[in-house]
From TrEMBL:
SUPFAM superfamilies: BolA-like (SSF82657)
PANTHER family reported for this sequence: BOLA TRANSCRIPTION REGULATOR, BOLA-LIKE PROTEIN 1
Domain of life: Bacteria
Family classification: Belongs to the BolA/IbaG family.
Pfam families: BolA
UniProt xrefs under InterPro entries: BolA, BolA-like_sf, BolA/IbaG_stress_morph_reg
Protein's name according to its UniProt entry: BolA family transcriptional regulator
Record-linked Gene3D superfamilies: BolA-like
């Protein structure tokens, strides 16, 4: 069963409360998404560590219900 983009967003925000999350369904099948996640929690962390935080928030759904997630992460702009 495909995973809804709204569910992905909720899971990420539950684990990373300040996250700004944008989800796009790449193939229209509910299995292949692109996500952009911006959070202060990523500051000082490597890109790999940032991605690990997001994958942990999905609680084992990657590779199972959620087949593919192209991920971009970053910190908020400081102005």
């Amino acid at each position: 069963m495909p995973m809804d983009a709204h569910v992905i967003e909720q899971m990420i925000k539950a684990a990373i409360p300040d996250a700004q999350v944008t989800i796009r369904d790449l193939a229209g099948d509910g299995d292949h998404y692109a996500a952009t996640v911006i959070s202060e929690a990523f500051r000082g962390k490597s890109r790999v560590q940032q991605h690990q935080l997001v994958y942990q928030s999905l609680r084992g759904q990657m590779g199972d219900v959620l087949h593919a997630l192209a991920l971009q992460t970053g910190v908020p702009d400081q102005r």
